[in-house]
Amino acid sequence: MGNESVVQVTGLVKRYGSKTAVDGLDLRVRTGTVTAVLGPNGAGKTTTIETCEGYRRPDAGTVRVLGLDPVREAGALRPRIGVMLQSGGVYSGARANEMLRHMAKLHAHPLDVGALIERLGLESCGRTTYRRLSGGQQQRLALAMAVVGRPELVFLDEPTAGLDPQARRATWDLVRDLRADGVSVILTTHHMDEAEQLADEVAIIDAGKVIAEGTPEALCRGGAENTLRFSGRPGLDVGSLLKALPPDSAAAELTPGAYRVSGTVDPQLLATVTSWCAQHGVMPEKIAVERHTLEDVFLELTGKELRG
Amino acid sequence: MSAAGTYTPKPGAAPLSRMIAAQAALETKMLLRNGEQLLLTVVIPTLLLVLFSAVDIVDTGKGEAVDFLAPGILALAVMSTAFTGQAIATGFERRYGVLKRLGASPLPRWALMAAKTLSVLVTEVLQIVLLTVIAFALGWSPHGNPFAVLLLLVLGTAAFSGLGLLMAGTLKAEATLAAANLVFLLLLVGGGVIVPLDKFPDAAQSVLGLLPISALSDGLRDVLQHGAGMPWGDLGILAVWAVVGLGAAGKFFRWE
Questions:
Q1: Quick check: A105 contacting B, CB < 8 Å?
Q2: Buried b (16+ CB within 10 A) or exposed e, A65-90
């Protein structure tokens, strides 16, 4: 993984009428990495990606993809990127292999179409036209179309939406192979496990801005603290427990008899809590360590209420 | 799983000529596979030619009916492909994100439009060959300057393409479908294709005569039936429609 960027977005603003879809967004994607862009519906994920693809002209800010301006230098950029739209993009009367062969013909050094069709399990589509393919088959065809031209950088907008678990794993495997061969990948997703599984870097977007970014591990460590819970008799002296804990910790009695300790939960902290309990004659029942998932971090940052 | 290095980047656009040829071939294949499009471009013109030549439904004036009808049906064939068929197909390609997706491919937009034009021309050649063979079988005896016929067909194609693309690039796909079929039907009746324009009241005639379909069918008839040289008036009307239609399509066409 190099330190150069394949995508450099600075202060991007994009408005549709009076609605601001992207509001001063900064994003940098390093060469050779898989970067996941997460965010609630309407956060500005697709607008950001489509601006990088050259579909939208920024109202303010700069976007550079492979060092090029995606609008002004579209002709130079397009052969070098692969694009998977959120939906559609295929003639309703075209067969899967026909469309993929066509995309291959638009490139100078395409992948072997037959092998790619087999790889993504599309050989069973046979003579079926696009409009009669299942949603999952349509998704996999769109993915194949994004990679067939041997691009340096691939944009995947919700590549596994609506896929069954097998097809999802096939997609993940392909993304891993792309990275292993040096292709940079940017994907948007609603699935936190997908980001945890695939991404080297995660950017969480909300209301048109990046509100957190980093490796999935760093986000889980940093964004939300891990917690340790236990039950005991009500009314324990939480202040005394807190004194025994490291300085960055917190302790609280949530409901009578239910205690929560948060902070850097490691074996040392667990030992401190249990020995404090022993000193105070408390039997800590239902003791449990909870590590935060990316989903917890995401919900903590973007709120739990449903978005319209 | 794939061997390591399968996906190692090696980007690049294919040569332009190869991209345009591939795109035109695919577009033509999509059109020939579509039943509704074939009905419009092949079945209806063929049926009208055979039916109206064989049965005396409309008074087509002096001479053999087929000599009047064949030029009109050729004009109809051009309209069905360049206008109606192209408008409907392009409208749905826009709706289903095909134009958008191709817009991110190495194929430049102008090359996509060039491929569409090529596909229209290939389809028209197939139509004209078929309809000419049928017309000859019905006793057609055309006259005139082949160059004038070619010029009329090319300008007619340009005029109808501009109008078809303008519709496809500005209206919703369903509206394009409905409007393109309605316009097809109205121009079929009121554009001198099978019903001579002189059957209409004088006032209507002067307006109907300015329609692109009337100019094309009238110009083709002047040459093929009456052996005229260059029908400059009709060529002029088609040229104006072509400039206005293609200009407006270029300005207002929306890709998404």
A1: yes
A2: bbebebeeebeebbbbbbbbbbbbbb
DSSP string, A129-166: BGGGS-HHHHHHHHHHHHHTT--SEEEEESTTTT--HH
Write down the ipTM of this complex. Answer: 0.89
Which of A205, A215, A199 is CA-nearest to residue A48? A205
Task: Give yes or no for a contact between B107 and A106, defined as CB atoms under 8 angstroms apart.
Answer: yes
How crowded is residue B253: how many other Cβ atoms within 10 Å of its Cβ? 18
Contacts B98 to A, Cβ<8 Å: 88-91
CA–CA min distance B48, chain A (Å) = 28
Which single residue is written with the structure tokens 């469309």? Answer: A99
Number of A/B CB contacts below 8 angstroms equals 119
**Chain A residues closer than 8 Å to B8 by CB:** 150, 181-183
**Residue that is written with structure tokens 């192979």 in the block:** A177
Contact between residue B111 and residue B23 where contact means Cβ atoms under 8 Å apart:
yes
Alpha carbons within 13 angstroms on the beta-carbon side of residue A29 total: 29
Looking only at the bridges linking them, the beta strands covering A209-214 and A60-65 are unpaired
Q: What is the dihedral of CA A134, A137, A139, A145, to 10 degrees?
A: -140
- What pairs with residue A85 in β-bridges? none
Q: Any idea which residue has 């092998």 for tokens?
A: A115
Distance separating alpha carbons of residues B188 and B165, to the nearest angstrom = 19
The Cα–Cα gap between A269 and A291 comes to 14
CB-based burial of residue B165 (10 Å sphere; 0-12 exposed, 13-18 middle, 19+ buried)?
Answer: buried
Amino acid at A289: V
Chain B residues with beta carbon closer than 8 angstroms to that of A105: 14, 18-19, 22
Question: Measured between alpha carbons, how far is A185 from A153 in angstroms, rounded to an integer?
Answer: 6
Each residue's pLDDT tens digit in chain A (308 positions)? 446 899 999 999 999 999 999 999 999 999 999 999 998 888 999 999 999 999 999 999 999 999 999 999 999 999 999 999 999 999 999 999 999 999 999 999 999 999 999 999 999 998 899 999 999 999 999 999 999 999 999 999 999 988 889 889 999 999 999 999 999 999 999 888 899 889 999 999 999 999 989 998 888 776 446 788 899 999 999 999 999 998 888 898 988 999 989 888 888 888 999 999 999 999 998 888 877 777 777 887 777 665 64
Distance from CA of B108 to the nearest CA of A (A): 7
